[in-house]
Amino acid sequence: MTQAAEVHLFTDGGCSGNPGPGGWAFLLRHPKTEKQLENSGAERETTNNRMELTAVIEGLETLKRPTRVELFTDSVYVGKGMSEWMIKWKANGWKRKEGGKLKPVKNEDLWRRLDEQLKRHQVKYTRVAGHSGHPENDRVDELAVAAYQKFL
C-alpha cells in the first residue's frame, strides 16, 4: 500500500504562440495543514512543453527534503514523459526513436533536471483536464498567463 502524499503539487505552463513568450506556475499544498506556496516565472521565447516541464521542476526543487508528492498536471507530455518515455530515453543515452533512427530528446536539459528530482522525491502523476473548472489547475493557469504578460 502506498502512503498518502505529503504534498500536492499543481503545475501549469503555457505560451502566447508556440514558440513565443511563455510562463510557468506551481502551487504546492500540504494537505494536512492546508499551508500552500505559489510561484511563477516567464521566458521571452520558449515553448508550451518547456514551460510545463519548468513548472514541475521548479515545484519539486522548492522542496527542502525528499518528499512524497502527488503531481497534478494537465500536461500529457510531462505525465507520459515521466511514467513511460524517460526510461527508454535514458537507456538510449537520452535519445528517442524517430523513423527508425535515434534522435536527441527534445528539452533534454529539462528532462535531466526532472530526472534528478524524481530520484529525490517519490512522485505520483495525476492527470487533470485543463480548463475544466479544477480550482487549483485554473489558479496555476492564471499565474502562468500573468507571468508572461510582461513580454507581450
Keywords:
alpha/beta; 38% helix; globular; single chain; 7 strands; 152 residues; Nucleotidyltransferase, domain 5; 4 helices
Give a summary of the structure in a few sentences.
The protein is an alpha/beta fold. The protein has helices spanning 48-62, 76-91, 108-120, 135-148, and strands at 7-15, 20-29, 36-46, 68-73, 95-98, 101-104, 122-127. The strands form two sheets. A five-stranded mixed beta sheet has the order 3-2-1-4-7, sandwiched between helices. Strands 5-6 form a two-stranded antiparallel ribbon.
Please count the beta strands (DSSP E, at least 2 residues each): 7
Determine and state the CATH class: Alpha Beta
Order of helices and strands: EEEHEHEEHEH
Computed Rg: 15 Å
Tally of domains: 1
DSSP helix fraction: 25-40%
**Structural class estimated from helices and strands:** alpha/beta
Terminal CA distance reads 48 Å
> What is the approximate shape?
globular
Assigned CATH superfamily:
Ribonuclease H-like superfamily/Ribonuclease H
**Overall average pLDDT:** 94
